[in-house]
Each structure stands twice: as structure tokens, then as C-alpha cells.
Design a protein that fits this description.
Elements: H1 3-15, E1 18-20, H2 23-28, E2 34-38, H3 39-43, E3 49-55, H4 83-94, H5 100-111, E4 121-125, E5 129-134, E6 137-142, H6 144-149, H7 158-166, E7 170-176, E8 179-187, H8 194-203, E9 207-211, H9 216-226, E10 233-234, H10 242-251, E11 256-260, H11 266-271, E12 274-278, H12 283-288, E13 291-293, H13 299-314
Parallel strand pairs: 2-9, 2-11, 9-10, 11-12, 12-13
Antiparallel strand pairs: 1-13, 3-8, 4-5, 5-6, 6-7, 7-8
The structure holds adenosine-5'-diphosphate and magnesium ion.
Residues 39-40, 94, 97, 99, 101-102, 127-130, 141-143, 170, 172, 212-214, 239, 264 line the site of adenosine-5'-diphosphate (ADP).
Protein name: P-type Cu(+) transporter
Organism: Halolamina pelagica
Family: Belongs to the cation transport ATPase (P-type) (TC 3.A.3) family. Type IB subfamily.
Length: 316
């Protein structure tokens, strides 16, 4: 493109809240054939809310009768956990975490009048959850892998987890002192324009994919809601593996635009053919990106590609 055309494209972009980090990026965007969206905070609002608390009694799921102790004896009323106990353990364990999932649990507990103190110790396990000490006992809050790696069998909660996940919720297991204690779930809202962004991209012949650390079932439920094919979902991708996932997609010969908002996404934004940071994204993401979308709107991804297209066609 001529410097004048580049100037016009960049200006039109800026007027539409689409910031290109230079003329070469403006030229590149039109060649994107695959858009890879991060899920949380990009396709969804990223504002989680606590929706469910399910008790597993620390021993036996309530649904199965509920009061059998591991040795076959009866649990006393005092030993038996209730919803507030499960939520309290989870909230105290999560109180030191910045993760949106954690904040929703803490807020949800406080809204129920639970006093959320600080854990005696606390360890963040990235992509898995939290390990903490509460009331002198070890509390785990996180996914199946976190529990398994810490010697707790998540199997008794399988059905509950699957039910919540197929509703698009992120379900987290809670263990106390080596026993499964319950499940808590957070839900996020899909952004209003996400569906229209996906359909407009597909109309242009651009493939749309989703990349997330969240589990497969939740990811697919959200994908279905916004119109992304199930086979285009890459779920359970650890933060450190997101850039490898984008590279793998590009190794198929695709020109990928990665769209993300979080610190997690920065390496993936950096390796993508075009890295796009969205809206309220973190400084780290914006730094790593080639394009910044000032508004929180996935439809602006389509705008970015259109502006690139229009700018370069005009001067041909
Ligand atoms: P995302 O890519 O959606 O931001 P992460 O990579 O941060 O997800 O986390 C992946 C999964 O690990 C989550 O879906 C959740 O099951 C679990 N997890 C991560 N952090 C926490 C936490 N603080 N509390 C509970 N579970 C967590
Ligand atoms: Mg995110």
C-alpha cells in the first residue's frame, strides 16, 4: 500500500476503535483465513457468577442416601458438611486468587452471608486450581486433574460435573482433607455480538476456532451458543501451551488471527500471524498484540479485516 492509503486505513481504523500497530499489520489482516478466539473475556463477558453449590458430604453424594461414613458407620450431624461449609472452604481457599473463577466464588459466598477469612496457606496451581489450608485441613478447589494429582478421586462427582458443564458452566471440585466435599459452579455470559461476529466471519469464508483452558464440555456448550463448530474447539489448553496451539494451527498452513484479552494470551498473540487484543484486555496482551480493539466487541474483529481489505483494494 502507498503511505497515503496506509494513513487512510489507519485513521479509519482508529475512528472505529481498531488500532493497527503499523502499516504492515494493516496489510496483513486481509489475508487472515482463520480467527482463533479465546473464550473467557473475549467471546464471553468474563464476569463470572456463582450459580451452583452441590454437597458430596465429604464421603458419599447426598443423592445416594448421604449419611454413610467411609467405614460404613453413620456420620453425626456435626461431621456432615452442608452447602455453606463447602462454599466457605472454597471461598477461603480462593480468597487470595485473582482468577475470575475465584472472585465469583468469594463474592457468591459473601452474598450468602458467609464470612470469608484468609487461608492459613495458599498455592495457585495454574490451569488447575488452588491448594490451600483452611481450618487446619487441606482444601483443593479446581478441575479433575488437580484432585487426581492430589490423590482425591473426582469420580463420584462425574455426573454432577457433566450436567453443569453441558449447561456451559465451569464446574469446580472441592476437596477437604483428602475427601471429595462438593462441587461449585460459575457461569459467564456470552457477549451479545459474539454470535454475529462468528457468522460474519464465516460468511467471508474465514474459519472460526476457540481456544480455552476450560474443559471440553463447557467449551463446546459455549461454542454451540456462538456458532463455532465443535471440531474447531481446542479446550483444556494450559496457559503455557496456548502459543503452541496457535503454532499448530498455523503449521497447517493457515494464517491465523488470535483474539484474546488476558495475560495468558500474550504468547499466543505474539506468535499469531495477527495478534489482536480485545477491549479491557491486560496491558501485557495489548503489548504483545498487533491490533488492539478499543471496545469490548468481537464484531470489531470483522471490522479490522474489512478495513484492511478496503484499504488495499482502493489503491490497486
Ligand atoms: P481460561 O483459559 O479459561 O482463563 P485457566 O487456564 O485459567 O482458564 O484455567 C483452566 C481451568 O483450571 C479452569 O477452567 C478451572 O477448571 C481450573 N482453574 C484455574 N484456576 C482456578 C481457580 N483459581 N480456582 C478453581 N479452578 C481453577
Ligand atoms: Mg481470557
Amino acid at each position: 500500500a502507498t503511505p497515503a492509503a496506509t494513513m487512510v486505513g489507519t485513521t479509519i481504523g482508529a475512528q472505529n476503535g481498531v488500532l493497527f500497530k503499523g502499516g504492515d499489520i494493516l496489510e496483513r489482516a486481509k489475508d487472515v483465513d482463520t480467527v482463533v478466539f479465546d473464550k473467557t473475556g473475549t467471546l464471553t463477558e468474563g464476569e463470572m457468577e456463582l450459580t451452583d453449590v452441590v454437597v458430596f458430604d465429604g464421603r458419599t453424594p447426598r443423592a445416594d442416601g448421604g449419611d454413610a461414613a467411609p467405614d460404613g458407620g453413620q456420620l453425626t450431624e456435626r461431621e456432615r458438611l452442608d452447602e455453606d461449609d463447602v462454599l466457605r472452604f472454597a471461598a477461603i481457599a480462593e480468597s487470595g486468587s485473582e482468577h475470575p473463577l475465584a472472585r465469583a466464588i468469594v463474592d457468591g459466598a459473601e452474598a450468602r452471608g458467609i464470612e470469608v477469612g484468609s487461608p492459613e496457606s495458599f498455592e495457585n496451581v495454574p490451569g488447575h486450581g488452588i491448594r490451600a489450608t483452611v481450618d487446619g485441613g487441606e482444601v483443593l478447589v479446581g478441575n479433575r486433574k488437580l484432585l487426581r494429582e492430589n490423590g482425591v478421586d473426582p469420580e463420584p462427582a462425574a455426573e454432577t460435573m457433566e450436567r453443569l458443564e453441558s449447561e456451559g458452566k465451569t464446574a469446580m471440585l472441592v476437596a477437604y482433607e483428602g475427601d471429595l466435599a462438593g462441587v461449585v459452579a460459575d457461569a459467564d455470559t456470552v457477549k451479545e455480538s459474539a454470535k454475529s461476529a462468528v457468522s460474519q466471519l464465516r460468511e467471508r469464508g474465514v474459519d472460526v476456532m476457540m481456544l480455552t483452558g476450560d474443559n471440553e464440555r463447557t467449551a463446546r456448550a459455549v461454542a454451540e451458543e456462538v456458532g463455532i463448530d465443535p471440531e474447531n474447539v481446542r479446550a483444556e489448553v494450559l496457559p503455557a501451551d496456548k502459543s503452541d496451539a496457535v503454532e499448530a494451527i498455523q503449521d497447517e498452513g493457515r494464517k491465523a488471527m488470535m483474539v484474546g484479552d488476558g495475560v495468558n494470551d500474550a504468547p499466543a498473540l505474539a506468535v499469531a500471524y495477527v495478534g489482536t487484543a480485545i477491549g479491557s484486555g491486560t496491558d501485557v496482551a495489548i503489548e504483545a498484540a498487533d491490533v488492539t480493539l478499543m471496545r469490548d466487541d468481537p464484531v470489531d474483529v470483522v471490522k479490522a479485516i474489512r478495513i484492511s481489505d478496503a484499504t488495499l483494494q482502493k489503491i490497486k
